[in-house]
């Protein structure tokens, strides 16, 4: 086992990854947009070539497509294929900061510039961690459509037979002006993973999630939680979505019901949050409205 100093030195050795950039192209195809619509319970036939998409849908295009031989045992691409080879085995989304200038349009090709923005070590209550920040710059016809800074947390594996450590429960606010309940069914989470080309096994393989990563059940995809929060808020929000910040605080489990809540918009902002079936806070979000 390495010492804390050796761990920090290993992370420091990855700093030459910071600033690296790769380009992911996407034709923003009609069939892809219709799959996303169907997954979100929107009539797929309502979308036509040339239509403007909801502004936050850009997060479900531009997947990293690895060869099957480059996929690791957890379903993610092997370390070093797309992302820095951080020497910790467990990876989960933590939060994001997004600005949106304009929406994508079906049939108009666009690109994602995926830039390694930061790799930081952290030693906390639950052990060694590393935070990887990726900056995704979405461009279409020479214009910046959106900028998405996404944080992923890498952690140590729990000892065999031990549960994965979790953030202590924290009650969610109860003063929301709405509360939408959504069942996180296996088909919904599977379809989201499919349209985003995410093969992380904790989202669909219960035996793997329990025996290898120490979770009590298959884990809800954090990107889907953010998507559902946005969809619920935008039903009530005035004006256009100019950006948002989001933080994932506690896992949700596939098969449970999530409650999506929010406060009334004020001064161009709107606070939202998600609660699990026991009323614990699982995610927070603030929308910026233009």
From TrEMBL:
Matching InterPro entries: HotDog_dom_sf, Mitochondrial_HTD2
Biased composition regions of type Pro residues, renumbered to the chain: 157-172
Disordered: annotated segments: 154-176
Protein's name according to its UniProt entry: Acyl-CoA dehydrogenase
């Amino acid at each position: 086992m390495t010492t804390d100093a050796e761990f920090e030195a290993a992370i420091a050795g990855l700093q030459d990854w910071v600033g690296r950039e790769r380009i992911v192209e996407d034709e923003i195809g009609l069939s892809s947009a219709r799959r996303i619509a169907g997954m979100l319970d929107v009539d797929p036939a309502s979308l036509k070539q040339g239509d403007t998409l909801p502004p936050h849908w850009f997060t479900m295009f531009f997947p990293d497509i690895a060869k099957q031989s480059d996929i690791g045992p957890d379903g993610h691409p092997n370390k070093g294929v797309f992302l820095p080879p951080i020497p910790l085995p467990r990876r989960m989304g933590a939060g994001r900061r997004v600005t949106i200038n304009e929406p994508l349009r079906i049939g108009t090709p666009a690109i994602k510039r995926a830039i390694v923005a930061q790799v930081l070590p952290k030693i906390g209550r639950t052990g060694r961690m590393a935070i990887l920040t990726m900056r995704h710059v979405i461009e279409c016809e020479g214009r910046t459509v959106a900028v998405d800074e996404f944080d992923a947390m890498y952690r140590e594996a729990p000892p065999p037979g031990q549960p994965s450590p979790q953030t202590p429960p924290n009650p969610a606010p109860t003063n929301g002006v709405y509360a939408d309940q959504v069942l996180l069914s296996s088909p919904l989470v599977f379809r989201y993973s499919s349209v985003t080309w995410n093969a992380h096994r904790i989202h669909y393989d219960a035996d793997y999630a329990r025996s290898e990563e120490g979770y009590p059940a298959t884990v809800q995809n954090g990107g889907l939680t953010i998507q559902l929060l946005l969809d619920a808020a935008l039903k009530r929000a005035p004006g256009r979505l100019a950006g948002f910040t989001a933080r994932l605080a506690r896992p949700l489990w596939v098969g449970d019901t999530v409650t999506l809540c929010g406060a009334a918009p004020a001064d161009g902002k709107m606070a939202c949050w998600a609660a699990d079936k026991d009323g614990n806070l699982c995610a927070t979000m603030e929308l910026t409205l233009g």
